[in-house]
Design brief:
- The structure is a homodimer of 238-residue chains.
- By secondary structure, chain A is an all-alpha fold.
- The first copy, chain A, has 11 helices and no strands.
- In chain A, α4 packs across α5 (94-109) and α4 runs parallel beside α7.
- The model of chain A is unreliable at 1-6 and 225-238 (pLDDT under 50).
- At the A-B interface, α1, α4, α5, α6 and α7 of A face α1, α4, α5, α6 and α7 of B.
- Chain A binds a DNA duplex (18 and 18 nucleotides) through residues 14, 35-37, 45-49, 51-53, 55-57.
Chain lengths: 238, 238
DNA sequence: GTCTATAATGAGATAGAC
DNA sequence: GTCTATCTCATTATAGAC
C-alpha cells in the first residue's frame, strides 16, 4: 500500500504489469503462441525481468492461472451456497442451480477490469486442448470441488435423472459457459450482429431456461435410443 | 491407384504421411505448439521435404484443413437435405434438424480412420481461439453455408422463436458438438468413468432431446428477464 | 523427389555489473 | 530490482547436389 513519492504518473508495479500482459497475451495466443519477448514488450520491461520475477515460462503461466483460479472457484461455489441457504427446503430448484453456475462466471466476464475476461478466455482455451497444457493440474485442483458440489446439487434437484445423464448435461452447460466467456466473435458473425458476445444479461436469460428444460427432458423416459440412432446412421451413401 | 512393384510393406506416399502427421500433431498441440521438425520426425521424413511439398508452415496448416473441410461440410448439409426430402411436409421437425446436425459430425468422429477425429479436434480447437488462427478464413468459407442452411431449417421448424434466440441456441448446439468431438477426457474424469468420450451413440441419444427441449423452452414466453437477472446479480458481498 | 548443408532469426534462460 | 550482454538451442526456410 505504499504510494510513490513523486508526482509522476504512478505506474503499476512491475510484477503486476508482467502478469497482466501475460494474461492478456496468453488468452489471445495460447501458451506456445506467445513468447517471453512478446510479454516483455507488452509490459514495457526487459526480457530478463520476466525470468527474474517468475522463473521459467511454465511458472509464469501457472502464476497467471493461480492468481484468479481460487477466487473464481469460490465465487461460483458461493453462488450455489447462497441458493442453498435461501431455498425454503434447503434444496434449490434445478433452474436456481443452473443460474448460480452460469452467473458466477458471467458476472466476472463483464467486470470493467478486462483481466477477468482474459483469464476466463484463457481457461476456456485450456479446457479445449486434448493434451496437457501446463495449467491442467492446477486447474483440476481449483475447480474439482466446484464440479463435485454442483453435481451433488443437480442430483438433489433432479432425482429422476440417471448419473450419466446428469454428468453429461452439466458438462454441456460448462461447455456453453466457457464458450460464451471466450467471446470468440463467432456468434456475432453468425447472427450478423443480432447477438452480441458481451450481452451477458441476454445470455443468462436464455441459458437458464434452455439448460433447465434440456436437463428435465433427459429425465423423461424416451425411446430405447436404438431408434434415434438407426434412422440416419445407416445412410452411408458416400 | 498405382501399386508398388516390390513386396516391401507399401508405405503411404510422402505427402500423405506428412498431412496425416500434421493433422494429428496440430490437433494435439495447436498450430504454434508443433514445429515442422516434430511433424517431419513423426512422418519419418526430412524437414526439408515438408517445406518442399507444402511450402511455409501456414500453407501446410491450410492444406490440413482444406483436405477435409469440404467433405465434412457436405456431410452435415446432406444430412439436413435428407431430412428435408423425407419429411412429409418438406419441413423437418426440430429434433430431426438437431439430429442431422449432430450425427453429421458424430459419425465422422467415430470412424475407424482416426484422421477424422484429429481433424474435428483441430477445428474445435481453432474455433475456441479468440484471435485469427491461420485457418479462420478457410473455415468460414467452408462452414458458412452450413450455418445458414441450418438456421433456415431451424427457423422453419420453430416459427415461434425470435431470431436472437435461434442463433444463440444453435451456437450452443455447435459448441456442444465441437466439445464432444474434441474428446478432451474431461467428461470421463468428472463422471469418474461413468461417461466415455467415444460413446457417440449415447451422446446423440441425449443431445437430441436436450437441445430440442432447450430450444422449445426459448419459444415459450418467460418472465421479463429482469427478475432472473436481479436476484443474484445484486449480491456483491465480496 | 529426396537429400545435406546452412542461412537467418528468434527462442528461453543466466551471469554479473549497477 | 533492473539492466546489458551473452549462451545455447530450436525454429523456419532455402540453396544446391544427387
Amino acid at each position: 500500500m505504499k504510494q510513490s513519492a513523486s508526482r509522476a504518473p504512478a505506474r503499476k508495479p512491475t510484477r503486476l504489469r508482467i502478469l497482466d500482459s501475460s494474461e492478456r497475451l496468453f488468452a489471445a495466443g495460447g501458451y506456445e503462441g506467445v513468447s517471453l519477448r512478446d510479454i516483455a514488450r507488452d509490459a514495457q520491461v526487459k526480457v530478463a525481468l520476466v525470468s527474474y520475477h517468475f522463473g521459467p515460462k511454465q511458472d509464469l503461466f501457472r502464476h497467471v492461472i493461480g492468481r484468479r483460479s481460487a477466487e473464481h472457484a469460490s465465487r461460483v461455489l458461493e453462488a450455489l451456497e447462497h441458493e442453498e441457504q435461501t431455498a425454503p427446503t434447503g434444496v434449490p430448484a434445478l433452474e436456481r442451480v443452473i443460474h448460480a453456475f452460469c452467473s458466477g462466471s458471467f458476472e466476472l466476464a463483464r467486470l470493467p477490469d478486462a483481466g477477468w475476461k482474459h483469464y476466463l478466455q484463457l481457461i476456456a482455451r485450456s479446457a479445449m486442448s486434448p493434451v496437457n497444457t501446463p495449467a491442467l493440474k492446477p486447474l483440476n485442483a481449483a475447480y474439482g470441488p466446484v464440479v463435485r458440489r454442483y453435481c451433488a446439487a443437480l442430483r438433489a434437484a433432479s432425482p429422476e435423472l440417471r448419473d450419466e445423464d446428469l454428468y453429461t448435461a452439466f458438462y454441456w452447460v460448462q461447455s456453453i459457459v466457457q464458450r460464451m466467456v471466450a467471446e470468440t466473435g463467432i456468434l456475432d458473425r453468425q447472427s450478423r450482429g443480432l447477438c452480441r458476445s458481451g450481452d451477458y444479461d441476454a445470455h443468462l436469460a436464455r441459458l437458464v431456461p434452455f439448460a433447465t428444460a434440456g436437463i428435465r427432458a433427459l429425465g423423461t423416459p424416451r425411446p430405447t435410443r436404438a431408434k434415434a440412432a438407426s434412422s440416419a446412421v445407416r445412410r452411408r451413401a458416400r
